[in-house]
Write a structure and sequence with these properties.
Order of helices and strands: EEEHEHHEHHHEHEEEEEEEEHH
Radius of gyration: 18 Å
Helix content: 10-25%
CATH architecture: 3-Layer(aba) Sandwich
CATH superfamily: Class I glutamine amidotransferase (GATase) domain
Number of helices: 9
Oligomer: single chain
Number of domains: 1
């Protein structure tokens, strides 16, 4: 039976304003699906992926443990905590709803499932700290501690992560040096967590066993812009994500 992944985030709507004169202007909108790289990489390796785009997550992300348990691994990528905390019923109508960050923690610790956070401007703490996962149930289960402020490390000249534990099944046999990335979220490795890839001593890929489950943090991006096309077209791109997911699902 194939591993089932609930993948949330990595999409956006872009609005463009065209000023054509004193009173003449236009607005055009477009949808950008940046989750296609990660999603298709896993599907090519036989992993079943259900993708909830960022703008649908506030409504579509499961609100009870039974629905989340339909999946072996939950992945959050570039989707802020407010999106999962503030169902429209909460934000617009002041009606209580389940705390889905607590549900993810329960899913991992009590039910032995897997969780992965992938970096970006709305991951970990993110741009200006607006992702706001510091102090949440998600930080409790991550293999890394979060900063209290904007945690981005922008590396416009590019950097190359290096494998730091070559014998782990996730990275065993992969090149020691990985393709160029353009930035990452700075985090602090937790005690008893394992760093598999790093840059300047900062975790790029870290894993942890907590409670009955497993978690991982990939602090750079699975898509543009931190993810360069050198990385996205890397012949091990599919392999890396498949191995991370299989480890989280306790298949390796």
């Amino acid at each position: 039976m194939s591993v089932k992944v609930l993948f949330v985030g990595e999409s956006l709507v872009i609005h463009r304003f065209f000023d054509k004169g004193v009173l003449d202007f236009m607005i055009a909108s477009s949808f950008e699906d940046e989750g296609v790289f990660f999603r298709e990489a896993l599907r090519k390796r036989g992993v079943e992926v259900h993708h909830i785009p960022t703008m649908e997550a506030a409504i579509e992300f499961p609100e009870n443990i039974e629905r989340i348990l339909e999946y072996d691994v939950v992945v959050l990528s570039d989707v802020g905590s407010n999106t999962l905390l503030l169902h429209p019923e909460v934000f617009m109508k002041s009606k209580p709803r389940p705390n889905r960050l607590k549900l993810i923690r329960e899913y991992v610790i009590e039910y032995g499932k897997g969780f992965l956070m992938i970096g970006g401007y709305l991951s970990f703490q993110g741009l200006h700290g607006i992702a706001r996962y510091k102090g949440t149930p998600i930080e409790e289960i991550l293999p890394v501690g979060l900063l209290e402020y904007d945690d981005r490390v922008e590396v416009p000249e590019g950097f190359n992560p290096k494998v730091s534990k070559k014998d782990h099944p996730i990275v065993e046999g992969l090149p020691e040096t990985w393709p160029t990335l353009l930035g990452y979220n700075k985090t602090i490795l937790k005690k008893n967590a394992t760093m598999l890839a790093e840059f300047n001593g900062d975790p790029i890929l870290a894993i942890w066993e907590i409670g009955k489950g497993r978690t991982a943090a990939f602090t750079s991006d699975c898509a543009p812009h931190w993810g360069t096309y050198e990385f996205l077209n890397w012949k091990y791109y599919d392999v890396l994500w498949e191995r991370i997911i299989n480890w989280l699902a306790k298949k390796i």
